[in-house]
Design brief:
Layout (H helix, E strand, L loop, with lengths): L7 H4 L6 E2 L1 H9 L1 H9 L3 H4 L4 H18 L6 H10 L9 H25 L4 E12 L4 E11 L5 E7 L7 H5 L2 H13 L5 E7 L5 E4 L3 H20 L19 H19 L10
Parallel strand pairs: 1-3, 4-5
Antiparallel strand pairs: 2-3, 3-4, 5-6
Length: 280
Amino acid sequence: MRTARTADRSEGAKRKPIFSPTRIATYLECAVKYRYIYLDRIGRFYQRPRASYSFGTTLHLVLRQFHEQGASLTSEELVQSLRQNWVQAGYTDATEEAEHLAMGEQIVAAYRQEITQRGETRELFATEKTLSYDMGRYILQGRVDRIDRHPDGTLEIIDYKSGLTTITPEDVASSLAMCCYQLLVKRLYPEAPVCATIYCLRSGEAATVALSDEALEEFTKDLDRIVEQILQTDFTEVYPKRMPLCETCDFLSLCTRFWQQQQQETALADEPFPTNTESE
């Protein structure tokens, strides 16, 4: 387990480290998984395509093109765009893929209808935009699905969720990613009011939250503490621990080998030392 770089702090010795919501969330979920992905950089050998990721990627691409083209495509044209941009990787079989394709067609058609009925005068500010801000010890970076500008100047961050059907304001307020996005937009556009919305593509349900300046300041302090903890961690001394998340983790086989090796070493250590029992 000592093949990793010594620590994140050594990675940032020459340049400031970049932290995204995904990177921070990975550390909070499992420090060993963080090490595998961001320090050992072996994710490409273990992470496999998943239907949920391919499905979400397809929908994000279709909706990005839809809004960049002025939201002028018809429902039929959106369905055609879905088929043209379909990502096939990760589905277990043709039946599962067909089910997701049919669901995707329903989603984009319903989305087009909802946009038409809404009839708001907001304008598109950005789609699939990467935002970065120097936080001092590190660079905070995040990629937002969409930002709309309202007539009063409010910038609304919109995050699509292809796997959710329900959402509450509490969910948005407690989302690490949405808090990071609000912080980034507020730092980059300090004069504009900012809010964040999670939009459930399967149901059309949405929830919106605008964090106060005080809440963003508290979040910034928490974020700084977490990042500092990551930077101070010696990941060569971080070892796999069993937890419920292990069963669906792409790195389970790697951690299992580590646990098996531990068991073998323990068994050898517990064996009695052979002695000579022959009488002189």
